[in-house]
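Memo subject: From amino acid sequence to discrete backbone structure tokens
Action wanted: Derive the backbone structure tokens from the amino acid sequence.
How to read it: Take the token row as a discrete description of the fold.
Attached in line: The record itself begins immediately under this heading.
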Amino acid sequence: MIKSSAQVTVRYAETDMMGIVYHANYLPWFEVARTQLLREQGFPYRQLEADGYRIPVLEVGAKYSRPAVYDDTLTIHATIREKPLLRIRIEYEVRRGDEMLATGFSVHVFCDLKGRPIRPPAAFAAKMGEIFKA
């Protein structure tokens, strides 16, 4: 299993007329945690792109339990529970301290610059093999 966390502070522009975070704003926070997780594993997204890879979102979902509001400091936890092969599934938790506000997931695939699915970089596959030894 691979875990990472990132923090964000809710900006006023991310809230709606009810004073709570608009639901779509959670997706960029998922991205913050996801790119942090990849960076910590030695695969910064910028380098993957420079090497000719893209990792588009195939599927995304979220469940909202409690509202986040302006100026909250939130921690977004990203977790890969299973060894990624061609697809990568990342699960997310959005917390304010110990309080769970939302959960979610995203599924990705490695693609070339023309959007065709391809195998992940050899170094990525090797690293995942080390982490997820059977």
Remarks:
- The chain has one domain: 2-131.
- The longest helix spans residues 26-40.
